[in-house]
Every structure is written in C-alpha cells, then in structure tokens.
C-alpha cells in the first residue's frame, strides 16, 4: 500500500499546484486589469459624495474634507484597492480561497445576495445534475462499448464509433437548445426554465405542511417534480457523454480481448459473459477511468454551459448571469470553484484508478496517455 | 523525410479509407466556401452586420422561405440592380419628368409592406405620380395622374416640402394604400371602372386590405373571396417638377414578406445565411491556427524534454502535466472577460493551453527514439543535438503530429464557440458561437426561432467532424500499428 499512498500524495501535490497556479492567474489578472475599473468606480462615487457634501451648510470645509477622505478610504477597502500589488494579490487569493467575497448586487441564484451563498447553491445544483448524468452515461456507455467490442465490425460497433465522433464535435449547449426547441417549444412536454424547480418543490412542501398531501404522495410528487425539471438537461448531457464512454470502452476492451488471460479463461471453459464482464472489464477499467478523467477536463466545461440554456440554477448559469451583469467577483469565484470541482473529480478518478490497478506506480504512470 | 513516392502512397491509402475521403471532401467544400465567400456570399451584408440601419427594411425574425410555403418571399431591389428598373427623363408641357419603372414578382402571397426610397433634389414646385402596373395590363393609380385636374404634391405622399427639398424620401406604400381616403380616391374608382360596385362595406375592406386587393385577380369576388394574381408587376414612380434641374435617384424598393431567403433573419432582420457562411472563415482560421501552432510547439517541447532527459525532463514534464490538467474553459472565460475581447487574444490563449497533450506523447516517443541505433550512430559521427533532433527524431514523430494537428482543430472551434456563446467573443467578428449567443440572448428557444439555432450548430458539427475524420484516417494510415 506504500505505492498507493505515494501516488496519492503526488496526485494531491499536483492538484494543489494546479489550484495555486489558477488562483495566481485570477488574482493577478484582477489586480492589474479589473482594478482600474474599480478605481474609476471609487473615484466617481467619491466625487458624488463630495458634491452632496457641498450642499450641506452646517459643515466647515475641513470637516467636509475629512468626511470625503474617510468615505474614499472605506470605498477602497471595500473594493480591495489598499496596499502594494503583492499585498492585493495575496489578499484576493485568500478571499477567493475562503470565498469571502462580499455581496453581489442581486440574488441571481438562490435567496441570498452573498457571493458565497450563491456559489454554494449553484455548486449543489451542478453536482446534482452532473452526478446523475455521469452515473447514467457511465453505465449505458460501458455496456454499449462492451457489446460493440464483442461484435467488432458489426453495425452496432460502427454506429458506436460514428456517434462518438459526432458527439465529440457537438457543443453540449447547442444540443440543449435543440432539445428545448423540440420538446418544450414544439411538443410542450417540458418547461423552458429549470430554475422554477425550487418554486415547485416549495409549493409541495407547503401542501405537505398544510396536510393536503400524505407522505407517500408527497414523496412521489417530489420525485416527479425533480424529474420534470431535470429530464431535458440530463438527457442532453447523457446523450453526448455516452459516445465517448462507449468508444473508449470498446477500444480498450478490444485490445484486452487479444491477451493471454482471456484465452486462458476461455480455454478453462469460463462462460463468455463472465469472461467479458468479469475478467476483461476488470482489466480494462483502469485505463478507461484514466482516459475518461482526462477527457472530462476538456469537456465538462462545455457541458456545464448547457445549464445556461435550460436555466438550470448551477454554475454554468452563474457564468451567464455574472457575465451579463458584469459581476466580476461572482465570476472569479465561480471560475475558482469550477476549477476546484474539476480537480476534485480528476483526483477522485485517479484515486479509483489507483485502487483498480494493482500495479500502481508513482507519478507519470497515471498520466501516460495512450 | 518521407520520399515523394511514399507521400503519394500515403495519400492513396488515405483517400481509399472512407473516413479519409469523407473528411477530404468536406474540407474541400468548407475551404472553397471560405475562400469564395465574395462570390457566393454578399460581402456588403457582412460589412454592414453591425449597422442596424442597413437592415431596417428586412423582415425581423423571419423564417426561411422554403419552410414558410405560403408567405411572400422578401425582395429588396436597390438602385444598383440596374436590370430590375428602367429610368427615363422626358418633358410634359413645362414639366420635367423623371420616371422610374421597377419590376417585381408577386408570388405565394402579398407583401406585408412596400418601402420605397428615392433621392430627390429640387427648388421649384414638384409633384409625384405613382401607379402599379399589373400582369393583366391593369393600371392601378395610387395618386392623381396626368389626366387629373391637378397632380399630387410631394408633400401629400412623402411629407416633404413640395417647393424645395434635397435628400432621401421614404414611404411605406402598403400603409399609404390602407387608408380610407386613398381607397376612396384611387382604389374604389379602379374597381368601379371594372364593374365592381363599391359601397361603404367594401370601402371599409379596402381601407384595411387595399394593399393586398391590388394584387388580386380582377373577378367580381375580388373583395369577398380574393385570389392572388401572381406574376411580374411594375411600380411606376414619376417625379414631376417645374424645376428643370431636378435630380433624382432610385434608392430601393423593399417588398417585405414574412419569410426571408435560405436561412431566414434574426431579430434585427439580418440575413442569417450570410453570417453562417461567413463563420466558416473564422472557424477555419481559429481551428487551423490553434491546432498548427500548439501541435508544433507541443511536439518540439516534448521532443526536447524526452531527448535531454534527467532533471530537464523532470521539470518540463511536470510543467506540461500541470498545464494539461488545467480546465481550459473556466480560465478562458475569466481571461477573455478581463482582456479586450479580441479573436487574436482568444487564439493566443487557446494555444497557450493547447500544447501539452502533444508534448506528453512526443516526449515518450523521443524517449524511445533516442535509444535507436541510427541516433547513436549519428551521435558517434559527432552530429549536434539540434541536428539529431531536427533530422532524426522530429521526422519520426511527424505522422503523429499531423494526425494530432487534425484532431486538435475541433477542440479549438468548440472552445471558441463556447466562449463566444457566453458573450465573450470578439464583437467585430462574426462567428457561429456569436450567432448562437445572440439567439440565446433573444430567447430563440422560447420563441421557436429554430432557423436561428440549427444552422450555426450544424456548421460547428460539420467542421468538427471534418477534421476528426481526417485525423482518424491519417492516424490509421500513418501509424499502421493502430489498424484493427
């Protein structure tokens, strides 16, 4: 187990370095680019304040000057404009890590205006959506890939390869728009905005408390409500993820099928089903997990944006909201948390890999492509 | 370097594979559309893409005409279409007449508006005569004509001073006709001249639907059960002036229906087919540039790392791994937000994050290649490191580099589309992502503007598959080990 521990430690260090690099990039960019805008905001607000002071006849000029200075200082503290650039970068980094970023102008998602609360709310919804989608697409994808490998060259096999190619060049969010056009606009089966799921759930809860519903109907209706609002985004993500799961599984299983242990198992008279799902899948799963982990890094970003289209109140929608409202801090926090989420997912997958693969070696072994 | 014969062999193998051929054909189509845009497309529309005034006459949110079978296809005849109109100058008594006859086709339905624009300049009293000449030879006057006791003044029709004016005059003829007074003065007499009685009920029909009635078959039931008279119509516009030095120019006649062109229009009335076509250029530029530079840079980086080995390798490998594990899109979002939104910034950022994948592979290739006997032999002959890398190691990795270059294109196109979709794209460039961003901002899905959503995405998909096909085909041809 020493090897496992070392691998995980190396992994953790790598992940921390990545996180640190990204925090530095965000903070430096903020200090050098965005603070000019903030500076302008502070100066404008101060001028406004001074103009208002001028109208007050009860104050002496010295008092007015003092008040103006205090006002400007307060504004600067609020916008993080105090100290040397290095200090500012450091301050911003610590504030990003703890998500201590004050309030946004509006409660875009959830009930609170606090940046932290909105991010946590969005994170929760993103996790709900993508965990479900990943579980579904993993199961379907692996089963599909196995059947394709078993009948290499068949129509199913060709279809899997074709769908994989096609789905790697379709933007998730565009498919989402198509889904809405087909199932919400044309057929009217599903809602346009998934945001309302919380309103609907709250209504159910109120009905439960008022005694209009018994526990069982409440539970069924609760499930139905979530499904009703979640089905379209879920299907969109699943459709486009299945292809790569199936294709990767097919290729790896195909290469494993030629190995000696498969022949041995077959020679022993192990049923073909058991050979495939017992022996081969066991041996194929570590590389499948690695490749998926790497492909996730590049595709999850695009997948998250899909939320924008459906109005699913997660981090993807938060990107759209913070960009269209010019909420720089909300955007920065969202980027940081998205990266954090990626890193945790990849770390977890590598952990699974380390457990699945008995030959765990350190460092590059988990990263060697192909 | 592979010989010419080998290249030919590879090409033949490549074309023989179905994927390779499909990819090549798609690439040729895309590339020729991109290069020939000035011929197939309309450069003027692209230049005026952000000039919303230019699109004022176009129907807004109009679906494509092939999908809207029974709506009038929008026609916009401008002064430059010299074949579509005739221009004559003649004199009637002491009046100078500038006469324009504009031909247009009425089919499927009637236009919802008819916008006429003219440039005029005069310093003495000026009149105007407008009439529509129908395919059945009927002439429908829309103003007083030469036989009337007086002519209609410029003020009555265009609302500008009749004694002196210099500039553009504009009138929506459809709303001009749909007016009780005009119906009574001109449309009703035309119908009565053709033995159709016009009472007060008929007059109220005319004042709401007169602009449609004038395009209907002249039957006794023209008002109760109108039937469209399809064919070539002519709009006659005479500017009649006491000023001998009057000057005029035909600007445009826009006959607007409820559908437009091949791909319809967006909320500003802009012709989407042009944007979708023009988007090919940027997709190819972004995709190819990013893939080429990042593959080459990554390839060299990996070779250097693998070739030198030791501590250098360790450090270079760590850096590459870190950059490789950075999720690009979130970072691109915040960087594009803070930097000036420019397409070149985006290309630079995509390259900056796009190289490590190739680097990791070429590194492991270089690790093997440097142990080969011919490399050792070269070293024994005293070849420099640079020579060994460029002459003996790089050529061996080229097949891989070509394939990974092709496979890198879709990623770049997709990422650019995602960034533009979020509204962070270059506002001066028309890309597919930006079209979809505008569609999303106008709630195209809620309003069912499918013609605005489907084509740009299909193009992204097509561009992506093109390069994946090419990449896979190259991979199987150049790296025969992978053949299954």
Describe the protein's topology:
The complex is a heterodimer of chains A (370) and B (484).
Chain A: H1 2-54, H2 61-78, H3 85-97, H4 115-150, H5 155-167, H6 172-186, H7 197-209, H8 215-257, H9 260-268, H10 272-310, H11 315-324, H12 328-356
Helix pairs in contact in A: 1-2, 1-3, 1-12, 4-5, 4-8, 4-10, 4-11, 4-12, 5-8, 6-8, 6-10, 7-8, 8-10, 9-10, 10-11, 10-12, 11-12
Chain B: H1 4-16, H2 18-35, H3 37-40, H4 43-47, E1 75-78, E2 85-92, E3 95-106, E4 113-122, E5 126-133, E6 139-141, E7 152-153, H5 154-158, E8 165-172, H6 173-177, H7 180-193, H8 200-213, E9 231-241, E10 247-256, H9 272-308, H10 310-325, H11 328-338, H12 343-354, H13 356-369, H14 373-380, H15 385-421, H16 432-441, H17 444-447, H18 450-478
Antiparallel strand pairs in B: 1-10, 2-3, 3-9, 4-8, 4-10, 5-6, 5-7, 5-9
Total strand segments of chain A: 0
Shape of chain B: elongated
Helix and strand composition category of chain A: mainly alpha
Give the DSSP E fraction of chain A (strand runs of 2 or more residues).
under 5%
Helix content of chain B: 40-55%
What's the quaternary structure here? heterodimer
The topology string of helices and strands of chain A comes to HHHHHHHHHHHH
Largest interface: A-B, 59 and 54 residues
The N- to C-terminal Cα distance of chain B equals 26 Å
Low-confidence runs of at least 5 consecutive residues of chain A: 362-370
Helices of chain B, by number, come to 18
Cα separation of the termini of chain A: 26 Å
Alpha plus pi helix count of chain A: 12
Assign the structural class of chain B, choosing from mainly alpha, mainly beta, alpha/beta, alpha+beta, or little secondary structure.
Answer: alpha+beta
Rg of chain A, alpha carbons? 27 Å
How can the largest sheet of chain B be summarized?
6 strands, antiparallel
What are the secondary-structure elements of chain B, in order, as H or E? Answer: HHHHEEEEEEEHEHHHEEHHHHHHHHHH
